[in-house]
Amino acid sequence: MHLRTHGTVGAVIGLWISGPIGGALGAFTGTVPDVDLDTGSVARVARWLGRMGIAGGIIGGYLLNSLTIAGLAIAGGFILLMLIRLPHRGPTHSLALAFLWSLLGGLWLQDPGLIGAWAGGYLSHLFLDALTPHGIPWLWPMSDKRLRLARWRTGSLWDHGILIVSGLIGVGWIGWKMVG
C-alpha cells in the first residue's frame, strides 16, 4: 500500500483510540515500518534523525558529562541507520518488531490510550501490507514464510479505496466530535 494510505489508516485508528494526539501518533507509527525502504521519505527522516542522534549523543553526553545520555542517543542513532539497510518488508514488518515498537511506546508514553494509538498505527501497517501479493513475514525471526491475506497491488483500486474510505471516516469522526 502507499505511504499515504498507511498514514491515513493509522491516523483514523489513533483518532478512534485516543483522539487528536492519538491520531497524530497513529499516522506517524502507521508509516514507521517502511523505514526499511531506503529511498522512501520515512527512511530520509530516519537517516537524518539517526545522524542527529549520534551527533547529539556525542555533544550532549560531553556537555552534560553523562555517558548514559551519550550511549542511548548514539545507540538509537545507529539503530535507526541500521534499520534503513534492512530488506523491504523484512523484519520491520513482523510481529516481533511490532511488539518491540509497542514496548518502546509504552515506556515512553505511559498513557494507555496513546500507547494503543502508537501500537495500532504500526499494526495497521502490517495488516495493510499483508493484503498485497508480496505479503509480510509475520513470524520473523522464527520463520520467513510470508502471510498474504489478499493480492491487492499497491496503487490499485483497493489501495485508493482504502485511502478514500479511511479518510472519509477520519473526517466524519472529527466532524462528529466537533458537533457533539
Describe this entry's structure for a reader.
The chain is mainly alpha-helical. It contains six helices and no strands. It has two domains: 124 residues, no CATH class; 46 residues. Helix content is 69%, strand content 0%. The longest helix has 27 residues. The model has no long low-confidence stretch (mean pLDDT 93).
Query: What characteristic shape results from the CA principal axes?
Result: globular
The domain tally reads: 2
Q: Roughly what percent helix?
A: 55-70%
Distance between the termini: 33 Å
> Ranges with pLDDT <50 over ≥5 residues?
none
The tally of helices reads 6
Count the strands? 0
- The string of secondary-structure elements, in order, is HHHHHH
The main pleated sheet reads as:
none
| Share in β-strands | under 5%
Can you give the mean pLDDT?
A: 93
Features:
180 residues; mainly alpha; 2 domains; 6 helices; 0% strand; globular
List the topology elements.
Blueprint: H1 3-29, H2 41-63, H3 67-84, H4 95-109, H5 112-130, H6 157-179
Give a short synopsis of this structure.
The protein has 180 residues and is mostly helical. It has helices at residues 3-29, 41-63, 67-84, 95-109, 112-130, 157-179.
